[in-house]
Structure formats: structure tokens, C-alpha cells
Amino acid sequence: MKVKCPTCQQDVEWSPSSEYRPFCSKKCQLIDLGEWAGEEKVISSPAQESDINNLDPEDIEAMLSEQHSDFFKH
Ligand SMILES: [Zn+2]
């Protein structure tokens, strides 16, 4: 069964796995709740992705190895 997202009119599968039904996503749910405006700047900013691209491969390796050591501590 499919319903239309009230915010963007996209088809949404109505099933237990559709966490945000009848919305297609958390974003549309927040828009409907009027809570999106405050977060829009943060989430729509492409800065995060370019930051990752600007990292040195060595920095990424270091970050990954830190994560792994954290992981094994738990
Ligand atoms: Zn939507």
C-alpha cells in the first residue's frame, strides 16, 4: 500500500519499516511539524562533504584507526 507524503507528495510505502509514514522521510516530518526551519541551514550546507574531501588520506587513516581502537575497548 502506498500513500503520498503530505509534505512533498512523493509515494511512500505504508509499512512498519516506514518509520516516518505517512511522510517519506524525517525531513518531511519535521517540515510538517514546523521544526525544519531551524535545522535547514545546517543540513543543507555542503560543507561537511567538502571537508571530508579536503582531508589528507593520512588523516583519514588516523581517524579510522582511532575509531577501531575505541571500538575494541568496548
Ligand atoms: Zn516527503
Provide a descriptive summary of the structure in words.
The chain is mostly helical. The protein has a domain of 42 residues: Erythroid Transcription Factor GATA-1, subunit A (Erythroid Transcription Factor GATA-1, Chain A, 2-Layer Sandwich), CATH 3.30.50.10. The protein is built from 4 helices and 2 strands; from the N terminus they run ββαααα. The longest helix is centred in the last third of the chain and has 17 residues. The radius of gyration is 19 Å and the shape is elongated. The site of zinc ion has 8 residues, from loops.
Short description:
By secondary structure, this protein is mainly alpha-helical.
Order of helices and strands: EEHHHH
The H-level CATH homologous superfamily of one domain, spelled out, is: Erythroid Transcription Factor GATA-1, subunit A
Gross morphology: elongated
Largest sheet: 2 strands, antiparallel
CATH-derived topology of one domain: Erythroid Transcription Factor GATA-1, Chain A
Q: What is the SS-derived class?
A: mainly alpha
Radius of gyration: 19 Å
What is the β-strand count? 2
CATH C-level class of one domain is: Alpha Beta
Protein name: DNA gyrase inhibitor YacG
Organism: Alteromonas alba
GO biological process, one term: regulation of DNA-templated transcription
Family: Belongs to the DNA gyrase inhibitor YacG family.
